[in-house]
Amino acid sequence: MAEQEMIVDVVKRDPNEINAAIQTNFEDVLAEPDGTHSFDFIWKYSYVCFNGGKNCCYKFLSTLCGLCMALFWGCEFAVITFEMVWCYTPLLKVYTISMGLQQKFFAVCINCCLAPICQTFGMFFSNINVKNG
């Protein structure tokens, strides 16, 4: 079986929007309310400094650590997948089978011991008549 060639979208890098909560644009972080404004040139250069610093720092950190982190997370999800396939799913199947057997034993005990008592009380209380007035 040949592996399929994977196509990586370098434009839309969060197609499932799993990081939608992480808004780090200038407008999402800094905002001056009406009536309180800094000088226009301060606001414009703050925008340039914010975006330049954010982009340089992110690119530096992703260059420095990105491949190692991708390898780490790939291995982490491989371990989770291995545990699910080879450990937890078979264990859950064994537990389900065992508990099904326990449920049958419990049902037999209830039907043999508790059901006659409940039927007796049911017949006893069914003969009670209440009359008003």
Automatic annotation (TrEMBL):
<comment type="similarity">
    <text>Belongs to the caveolin family.</text>
</comment>
<feature type="transmembrane region" description="Helical">
    <location>
        <begin position="60"/>
        <end position="85"/>
    </location>
</feature>
<dbReference type="GO" id="GO:0060090">
    <property type="term" value="F:molecular adaptor activity"/>
</dbReference>
<keyword id="KW-0812">Transmembrane</keyword>
<keyword id="KW-0472">Membrane</keyword>
<dbReference type="GO" id="GO:0070836">
    <property type="term" value="P:caveola assembly"/>
</dbReference>
<keyword id="KW-1003">Cell membrane</keyword>
<dbReference type="GO" id="GO:0000139">
    <property type="term" value="C:Golgi membrane"/>
</dbReference>
<keyword id="KW-0333">Golgi apparatus</keyword>
<keyword id="KW-1133">Transmembrane helix</keyword>
<dbReference type="Pfam" id="PF01146">
    <property type="entry name" value="Caveolin"/>
</dbReference>
<dbReference type="GO" id="GO:0005901">
    <property type="term" value="C:caveola"/>
</dbReference>
<protein>
    <recommendedName>
        <fullName>Caveolin</fullName>
    </recommendedName>
</protein>
<feature type="transmembrane region" description="Helical">
    <location>
        <begin position="105"/>
        <end position="125"/>
    </location>
</feature>
<comment type="function">
    <text>May act as a scaffolding protein within caveolar membranes. Interacts directly with G-protein alpha subunits and can functionally regulate their activity.</text>
</comment>
<dbReference type="InterPro" id="IPR001612">
    <property type="entry name" value="Caveolin"/>
</dbReference>
